[in-house]
Amino acid sequence: MNPETRQRRLQAVIDAAEQVFTRKGIDKSTMQDVATQAQMGVATVFRFFPKKEKLVVAVATKMLEEVLQEFHAVAAQPETSLRKLEILFDSSIALLERKDSSGVKLLENFESYAAQFTEPLDDIGKFNAVYRKISGVFSTIIEQGKQDGSIRADLPIQDTLRTVMNTFGIFARKLSLQKNILVIEQDLDPAEQLQILKHILLSYLKP
Predict the structure, then answer these.
(1) Is the pLDDT of residue 184 over 50?
(2) Tell me, what DSSP letter sits at residue 116?
């Protein structure tokens, strides 16, 4: 198998797994399910991924790489750093407002799946490496904001980074999971809740 064909089939397996995991959940999905979705033999799937957890990490890493691309695109825009952060927040809110927020739910499912293991998942280092790159882009935006005057100069970058990413990211994912659950009529719309949180965080970051 030449490298181009191998890469194409590898990507087909990962794409098929993402569809299966989204539809059935990671725990209930089998390698045979993935093979059927990819229209190839299960032995071929196992040649690419000898263990299911390797495939799970590959899917999660691919999804995180898409987030990284978005961060790079926003970071390159000719805007103040505070405005760049607002764009990233708005992107997360828009994702939540979509009828199909399956990507958010699948990443949440991945975190729950990974938490079941007493030892780190195989290849989790690849996932963590992409996450560190996202954090690096975020750190750069904050540092540039301190220089361009759009973000407070007295803020510790790493503490601010962790707080903003964790607060907004975790809250957004939780609201995505809950948005289809029946709640009392007067509950505030999830997107409106995130808008409020966005304004609180941006107000804190402003000089």
Answers:
(1) no
(2) T
